[in-house]
Structures are given as C-alpha cells and as structure tokens.
Task: structure prediction
Amino acid sequence: MKLYSYYRSSAAYRVRIALYYKNIPFDMVAVNILKKENLNSDYQHYNPQMRVPTLIDGELILGQSTAILEYLEENYPQPSLLPAETKARAWVRYFSQIIACDMHPLNNASVIRYIKESFEHSEAESMQWYYHWLREGFSALETLLQQQSKKGRFCFGHDMTFADIYLIPQVYNAIRFKFSMDDYPEILRINEHCLTLDCFVQASPEQQPDFISI
Result:
C-alpha cells in the first residue's frame, strides 16, 4: 500500500491517523504542494484532481480522504473506527461530514489563494473568511459534543472513531493560524487526549519526512 501525502494536508493527516491506528503497513510518498509537485503529469495520472491524499492498494487508486477511510474500514475492520450500532454510526458520520463537507472545503488552501488572487483580498481579509467558517463549524461541533449522551475520552464515548480522525487535523490547522479555541472546551479536551495516542503522534505533521518548520 502506498500513500501520497503532504505533511500539512489535513485530509492526508486523517488517512495517516487511520493507517497507524489500524497498523496497516504503507509507504509514504511526499507530494510537495508548495513546489506544485501535485501538478506534475505523473501525479495527475494517479489523481486527476491534483490533490492529496491518494491511496494505492494494488490496482486500486483512490483519492478523497472520506472514500479512503471508508475503504480502510471495510477492508481492515479491526480495530474499528465506526460504532457497531447503525444510529451511532450515523451520528459519527454526521459529525465528521460537518468538517469534511462544510469546514474544510471553504478553508482549503486553494480556496484562500483564489480569494486573494482573484478578488485582491488582503491577508487580513482572507483570515476573516477563514475564521468565520471555523467559528461556524466549531460552534456546531461543540454543541453536538455537549449534547452527546455517550460522553467519554473521544467524540463518541471511549472508542476512537472517524469523528476524532476528522476533528484533530482541523483543530491543528486552526491553532496554526492562531484561531482562538477558548470557546470550545469539549473540543479542546478531546484534542488534548487524542494527541497523547501513538497513532495521532505518528501521523502528526511534525513527524512526517517532508515536514518543514517555518
């Protein structure tokens, strides 16, 4: 199995967490987005969207982190990242998709760059956009966590799920861009716990071979 990844990509971060959690051996291939290696024709052959991550498992080539995570869960079911009960699974997917469908796409680096270049927005104006969608998303997630009857160390009780895999990279990016997380105590509590676990440590941007400290 091979994973094309960029250390700062939150989508690639999600997949790395799952691979380490499930103890699935893989080779990591760095794709430097800043150097536009994702635009190379060789990489486009694997991913026509020219995004990361891309997972290759034999003849299967998959982009999009959600599709990859579902594939890993179905083919490497233990340890599981989804609850056994269908209603619980639905809640975990609901929580995860707030991040995957509403927060991440609006704050993707390509979107921020487009806003700056096409509409001549300043850095401050771009951050205003970024912070707005973080507040919208994190406020909803915090409410869901506070309402959650199955409280525990993770988003859904005492078992790690997709919800945690989506949440922690999003928090990482928010903190990197100096967004205050003070209004989200449940999110911070879960983030603090997850960052003590080996799979999150191994998958963290700082532990990747292509990590650059700037």
